[in-house]
Amino acid sequence: MCGIIGVVASAEFKRERRLGTLIKQALKHLEYRGYDSVGFAIITYDGRLVVRKSRGMIDAVSVKLGFDELDGYIGIGHTRWATHGPPSDSNAHPHIDCRGRVAVVHNGIIENYMELKNYLMERGHSFSSETDSEVIPHLIEEFKKLGASPYDAFKAAVSVLKGAYALAAIDLDSPDRIFFARSTSPLVVGIGSSENYVASDIPAFLEYTRNVVVLRDGEVGYITSDEVHVEKLICGRAGHSEVSSELQVVLNALEAVPVDLRNRVREIDWTPEMAMRGGYPHFMLKEIHEQPQAVSSTLAGVASEVRQVAEHLKGVERVIVVGAGTSYHASYIGALLLSNVAGVWSIPIISSEMRWYLRSLGEGDAVIAVSQSGETIDTLLAVREAKKLGVLTVSLSNVVDSAIPRESDLVIYTRAGPEIGVAATKTFTTQVVALAYLAAELARVKGFMNSGEFTKYVAELRRLPEIIAGVIAQYEAKARRIAKNMVNKKSAFYLGRGYGLPISMEGALKLKEIAYIHAEAYPAGESKHGPIALVEEDFPVIFTALSDEEYGLIKSNIEEMRARYAWVIAVVPKINNVVGEVLKLASECIPLPPLNPAVAPAAYIIPHQLIAYYTAVFKGHDPDKPRNLAKTVTVY
Ligand code: G6P
């Protein structure tokens, strides 16, 4: 998925930190987006373009290539998650043109790169990587040969690209600016006091400024040390131009209108500390511990957004809740909440599967898109397609002004603060809490809940921060103990019913993605229809029930697993008879405060997060950077 950063000061400006160090540290904040290779390009104070890049992770590459020794006043950097071409020194970004005057970093996929590459090779360009991105500096070079200014050449190059991209480019022929462009992949400008920034995400420059402009699709522009210039490229929307046209024709047709940024600059309320580890060994553990605060900020902030959305959902008959990864599990809980609390027909759908359901949707239906980043391409496309059909679109996101909220009719923001660990934790709990609030508000406006019931429900939601803090304090040591035994396992089942099912799905995903243990979640009732064939002595089976009703339904499944000598762990409500039985049936019992099951998911996921975290750590893996994964997935 890749992370990009660009920073520009004036040539006279000398900062305390060398530019190489600044870019390295910015890239570390973007490492969650990819970490198989890293590189940067700097224009030095004596006017040279220096490019250093290599396969490997930032700290190691930085030492190997001496990032900290390099200084200059303008530079770009990149951390890569390979799409086209495996991780290697030559496939690492930045990529340069034939003359070594233009350097480009790219996040996304250029779909027509083969066509462009062949075209450029016919004109004598030589390529040194297998990436799609390398066509961009060569295109810029080619347009400059036709007499275009560096900025026009950049815009013309952008106008022939098809696909998804966030780009930053520097050019020795225009050495005071960084050019940028965005189509689908995220890109944010940071406005500093003596320098400006452009990056894939805000934490990259949060240490220096909180004033940001979130760029929109089709926007191009440049930053200098004291100017931010943005234009909307008219023919530049991906796919409008054809490479088969003569380049001169493309250049002549280039049209862009300036964008007024006066109402677009936002001061965000994240602090630099939020994007730092703050004494914890990993961001994931810090973010697990931040959940009480994240839930409390979300509950404090969402009331009016939730009320507005509930008013619009009042007359809607069917609601589809879409999301990917962990956000899909929150969507699953959302659909259960809407059905069970608000009496609205609702189902969860994985974003990338949404197209198969769209054909039966139309006016009178609603889609709720859940995405912490607000950028996941499959979820964005689900919203776009639904909107075309007249479906009401609502998004639930953690990033203000990101693509999915911007394209939705209505939005609810979680207030979890930046989440850096690739495995989502605090954004999940804030999503389920916001959805629980929405379900209650909808039930209230529809007359499904009277005001006394609503008040009681909301009061229980407001107790969650304290309850979550208590669960962490009480069960962290036990999670470590369970994790010690989990490290030797090859596979695990997570079983539950009702709300216990999406919690099981999320628990299994956590174990799989960071501890690399094959884990599957099933509706507990389905376990007899296949999965149980795998169960033998000491096979881990983790049950979750959020209420005595759910427990009553999984009890026989626990018995079945015990009869096969499975290693049974049960997360259940602390109700006397339930705990009494579980202590006899299961190897490990984790009794949690009994709650309204609609409110409980945010608390009942905690032991699963902790077990997965400590299993990963005991196995020697870095839970913040699981292999092959990226936090924001902007490719389909
Ligand atoms: C990736 C991340 C997951 C995340 C999913 C959806 O797979 O690794 O942690 O849940 O994307 O991301 P979103 O930003 O849409 O919630």
Helix/strand layout:
Elements: E1 3-9, H1 19-30, E2 37-43, E3 49-55, H2 58-65, E4 74-80, E5 95-96, E6 102-110, H3 113-122, H4 135-145, H5 150-159, E7 163-171, E8 178-183, E9 188-191, E10 195-199, E11 211-214, E12 219-223, E13 228-233, H6 247-252, E14 256-258, E15 266-267, H7 283-289, H8 291-301, H9 303-313, E16 318-323, H10 325-340, E17 345-350, H11 355-358, E18 365-371, H12 377-388, E19 392-397, H13 403-407, E20 410-413, H14 426-445, H15 451-486, E21 491-496, H16 500-515, E22 518-523, E23 540-544, H17 548-563, E24 567-573, H18 576-585, E25 588-592, H19 601-604, H20 606-618
Parallel strand pairs: 16-17, 16-18, 18-19, 19-20, 21-22, 21-23, 23-24, 24-25
Antiparallel strand pairs: 1-4, 1-10, 2-3, 2-4, 5-6, 6-7, 7-8, 8-12, 9-10, 9-11, 11-15, 12-13, 13-14
Helix pairs in contact: 3-4, 4-5, 8-14, 8-15, 9-14, 10-14, 10-16, 14-15, 15-20, 16-20
Quick one: CATH superfamily of the largest domain?
Answer: Glucose-6-phosphate isomerase like protein, domain 1
Decide which structural class fits the backbone.
Answer: alpha/beta
Mean pLDDT: 93
Total number of domains: 2
Biggest pleated sheet: 8 strands, antiparallel
* CATH fold category name of the largest domain: Rossmann fold
- CATH architecture call of the largest domain: 3-Layer(aba) Sandwich
Shape: globular
Class of the largest domain in CATH? Alpha Beta
What ligands can be seen in this structure? 6-O-phosphono-alpha-D-glucopyranose
Strand order of the largest sheet: 3-2-4-1-10-9-11-15
Low confidence ranges = 236-240
Radius of gyration: 26 Å
| Count of strand segments | 25
